[in-house]
Amino acid sequence: MTRSLVIKVTAGAEAPERTNQALTVAAAAAAAGVAVSVWLTGESAWFAVPGKAEEFPVLPHATPVSDLLQVVLSGGRVTLCTQCAARRGLTEADLIEGIRIAGAPSFVEEVTREGAQALVY
Description:
This protein is an alpha/beta fold. The chain has helices spanning 16-31, 52-55, 65-75, 82-87, 104-111, and strands at 4-9, 35-40, 77-81, 99-102, 116-120.
């Protein structure tokens, strides 16, 4: 059985610690060889757009969100919620290379796979 971790990030700039914690856990799991899937929803949707993660405030004693996102992208999957993208007028052409847009059926498929663990931040 393959271990996998699905993390749904619901916060953005309005909750910087929660946002950074979610991506820190995702990056740590990816670095440990766990199959990681991060779902960007709500205000975290903006991190899928080039340059937006770099605008996020750097928290004391924390790795910048842009660096964490790159670690996840290099070893895992990042998905932008379909509805969240549509509400913000974002299409695949607007996103960082490697980030896909998918909806609830894909999320449900990922979190119900054998060996999957899901976290929501």
